[in-house]
# Entry
Amino acid sequence: MADYNMMEMMISVASRELENGATVGVGTGAPCAAAMLAQKMASPELIIMFEAGGISPELPEMPISVGDSRTFHKALMAGSMGDIMESCSRGFVDYTFLGGAQIDMYGNLNSTVIGDHANPKVRLPGSGGANDFASFCWRMMVMTPQDARRFVEKVDFMTTPGWLEGGDSRAESGLPLDAGPYKIITNMAVMDFEPVSKRMRIISVNPGYSLQDIQDNCGFELLKADKIVETQAPTEEELRILREEVDPYGYVIGR
# Structure
């Protein structure tokens, strides 16, 4: 079995979700690495979009921010944040990767404050473009280590909308129908959302973990799919490309 770490596992799993010809709005770090890996594996025509305006660049190496000049290298378009957000709101962006300090059972994210908003214990960076991406991109994915402090029953502040209160609440709020949280990829498992209740559920378990491990590291009850499979570990080829071509200096994967 290939030797890999937690970050390599999550990036490899995430990359497999990005089909050829799809569009994906990414930030720097792990989401960018997943998109680059997908391009170099099964999805050479994947269109990568950066919040600062780079659309489908030929990335020479891992950029250090969404405004890095490398995100515009040989791009189809060197646009602006307005161009990217307009593309999202017009329904042109299939996937986005987001994160936060907290996530709840409906995929709502908090990246604003821990504690009371008026008197927080910790003040966090805030939304940036995350609210727009989550509101209008068709499928939102999250890559994050799993623990009960991060996976909470109710977020302290809703920075980024998931399925809101579950059921039809997102559609009733006026957000686009059929757009919303899609997959949650952690070091322990892959989760999706039950179609009716819109609650988070386990669909696959990563090698080396059990269903009990996953539940013990979550602050709310996780639903379970009728058929739960084992997540495919990174292949030798995925690891080679990730280490040699995507992130040779180990900025994200840490090797």
